[in-house]
């Protein structure tokens, strides 16, 4: 994985190869034309929800945007190599481009995958009113370090190191660290194709 710029260019290339206009992708995905333009022009990389919606419209897996590898066998991710890779920083909201999570892919070399496992560093929160997101699929989170707060629908959960949560991501949700604290999690996203 190179950088966020790699992802924007990949999305644009796939869209153009499918002979889709930005307007068509916006209409079919429910993602605004302006946000798609910001993504393709490397102005922002949104949360996973809009990327999953765009991937479905284009008929590709979410992982297609995140890699360009073709390894069919098992893929090993070594701890010593993880931090040497470029991180992906998604924005947590289409209007406020605060990037509070740094994602390190653990499967970027695996072709045809249906899960997206990440090590995720979460920066301390700066606010307490969050914009929730939702998308098809499921998510699993295991807290490695610190404390994580998860808003899931109308409920809020606090998880500490060693705790985990598994949920349907169609329910509006938000993952963050508390104000003034950071955290590290293992997150696995499954988005049906």
Summarize the structure.
By secondary structure, the protein is of the alpha+beta class. It has helices at 4-17, 22-29, 33-40, 48-58, 62-66, 79-82; strands spanning 88-90, 101-105, 115-122, 138-145, 147-152, 155-160, 164-168, 173-176, 183-190.
Written account of the structure:
By secondary structure, the chain is α+β, with helices and mostly antiparallel strands. The protein has 2 domains: 4-66, 434 Repressor (Amino-terminal Domain), CATH 1.10.260; 79-190, Sandwich (Jelly Rolls). 26% of the residues lie in helices and 27% in strands. The protein has helices spanning 4-17, 22-29, 33-40, 48-58, 62-66, 79-82, and strands at 88-90, 101-105, 115-122, 138-145, 147-152, 155-160, 164-168, 173-176, 183-190. The strands form 2 sheets. A 6-stranded antiparallel sheet has the order 1-2-3-9-4-7, with no helix packed on it. Strand 5 and strand 6 form a beta hairpin. Helix 2 (22-29) packs across helix 4. The longest helix has 14 residues, at 4-17. It is globular and about 45 Å long. The model is unreliable at 92-98 (pLDDT under 50).
Contiguous helical run count: 6
CATH superfamily of the largest domain: Jelly Rolls
Task: From the alpha carbons, calculate the radius of gyration and give it in angstroms.
Answer: 16 Å
Shape: globular
- CATH class of the largest domain, please? Mainly Beta
Q: Number of folding domains?
A: 2
The run of helices and strands is: HHHHHHEEEEEEEEE
Return the CATH topology of the largest domain: Jelly Rolls
CATH architecture of the largest domain: Sandwich
Q: Structural class of the helix and strand makeup?
A: alpha+beta
Q: Sheet bearing the most strands, described? A: 6 strands, antiparallel
Order of strands across the main sheet: 1-2-3-9-4-7
Low-confidence stretches at least 5 residues in length (pLDDT < 50)? Answer: 92-98
Helix content: 25-40%
Distance from first to last alpha carbon: 21 Å
Mean pLDDT: 82
